[in-house]
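[#protein-structures] MJ: dropping Methyltransferase here for a structure pass
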Amino acid sequence: MTRPSPDPRPHTALGRMLFGGMVAHLIGGAVRLGLPDALGDRESTADGLARTLDARADTVERLLRALAAVDLVEETAPGRYALTPTGRLLRSDHPESMAAIARLYTDPLLLDSWRELAGSVRDGSVAFDRVHGESFFDHLRGRPEQAAMFHAAMADGTRGTARVLPDAYDFAPFTTVVDVGGGDGTLLSAVLARHPHLRGVVFDNAEGTALAPAALERAGVADRCAVVTGDFFSTVPAGDVLLLKSIVHDWDDDRAVRILTRCRKAITEDGRLLLVEPMLPDGAATAENTVPFLSDLNMMVNTGGRERTRADFEALCSRADLTVTSVRTLAPPSGYALIEIAPR
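AK: finished. structure tokens for Methyltransferase:
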């Protein structure tokens, strides 16, 4: 009996997945070259871009063809190229820029750990610690250029949430918002600008808050916001709203509970803790978005953290004498879960 020919479609699908890493490096390489900024809002040729980028015209042409194949540029006429709407997000001057994210997620800082994924799956160890001999955040403290790259990416990744959070939650009953691990203040600036009755505190380590004063000044809220440096494992400034975006997922359960416990001590009895985090669905079969699952593994290999389901967050909060009161999904371009938590 003749064996039927295998269905080619699974091979095609798997091939696309395997080439996915190359697509990421295509994007990261284009950003590092400065190609999206060089194209800007105009059309250009490979020759014109090569002169601007100090590169070879023939290799720039090959890069442009690949970028067109993944819909980041379009060939508007033979040999002439322009950014697509998706490609424009790679410009450093775009209000929703993802250029810094592209740099971070294609840098050896993160990728070296991914090469050790199998080891982390086998024994639960943090690959980054094995590769570098220290934890992710300890590593950043001694390397200002990598720390700056990381914090720039975090700021880029916060802008979408900053657009929607100020109108997605009722801040009217409160007076002081503390952004725990708030970095350069991108998110808190948007909340304070939308709600002029509020005062705020950006709380992070010295590297994280380095650009906060300038960001608060640009937003016109510096007179209502303090910048405080410290360690959220030790203490957290008091407030009636404590806001944490993409903080808890960096840590394992025990250290996440330590952070939440510090927040429980800092919050007023009628206050609220707001977590803005990716949230895993209850089962993989119900997933419409692969990103939280990939982010879960990224946390596992790089920081020892994890993404969590609603039940996971409820269990963490219970250990910290807190209770989840509501969960909603923030509108695009955020898409994060907004988890409201109250003292028990």
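MJ: nice. The beta strands are 44-45, 73-77, 80-83, 176-180, 199-204, 225-229, 239-245, 267-277, 322-329, 337-343.
AK: one more thing. Residues 144-168 form the longest helix (25 residues).
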